């Protein structure tokens, strides 16, 4: 799985802004794609919501889920604060 890092200078970056940035970057890289999951390190939240990993690696559950569903790209926003997983739609 390819990982792209989006560094952001804005200290007040919220989840919705990070989500829009990641969606735009994924579409630019993959074309028509679907987000398989996300992780919010600040609040320790994941989607799908039942996939929170261990206390040491809380993002591990959603990352494993995305990989098992064929995720092709992880977009890491703001040094791991937000992570999003995408898969290209098949033709």
What does this structure look like?
This protein has two helices and five strands. By secondary structure, the chain is of the alpha+beta class. The mean pLDDT is 88. It has a five-stranded mixed sheet, sandwiched between helices. It has one domain: Dna Ligase, domain 1.
Quick structural overview:
The protein is 27% helix and 31% strand. With 91 residues, it is α+β, with helices and mostly antiparallel strands.
| H/E series | EHEEHEE
The domain count comes to 1
What is the straight-line distance between the termini? 20 Å
Mean pLDDT metric: 88
**Residues in β-strands, percent:** 25-35%
Strand tally, please?
Answer: 5
Helix content: 25-40%
CATH class: Alpha Beta
Strand order of the largest sheet: 1-4-5-2-3
Q: Count of DSSP helices?
A: 2
Structural class: alpha+beta
Oligomeric form: single chain
CATH fold name: Dna Ligase, domain 1
Keywords:
91 residues; single chain; 31% strand; globular; 2 helices; five-stranded mixed sheet; alpha+beta; Dna Ligase, domain 1; 5 strands
Helix-strand layout with pairing:
Layout: E1 2-6, H1 15-30, E2 33-40, E3 45-47, H2 60-68, E4 73-77, E5 82-88
Parallel strand pairs: 1-4
Antiparallel strand pairs: 2-3, 2-5, 4-5
């Amino acid at each position: 799985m390819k990982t792209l890092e989006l560094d952001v200078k804005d200290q007040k970056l919220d989840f919705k802004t990070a989500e829009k940035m990641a969606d735009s970057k994924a579409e630019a890289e993959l074309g028509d794609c679907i987000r398989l999951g996300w992780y919010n390190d600040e609040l320790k939240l994941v989607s799908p919501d039942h996939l929170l990993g261990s206390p040491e690696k809380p993002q591990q559950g959603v990352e494993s889920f995305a990989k098992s569903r064929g995720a092709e790209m992880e977009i890491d926003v703001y040094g791991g604060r937000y992570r999003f997983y995408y898969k290209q739609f098949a033709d």
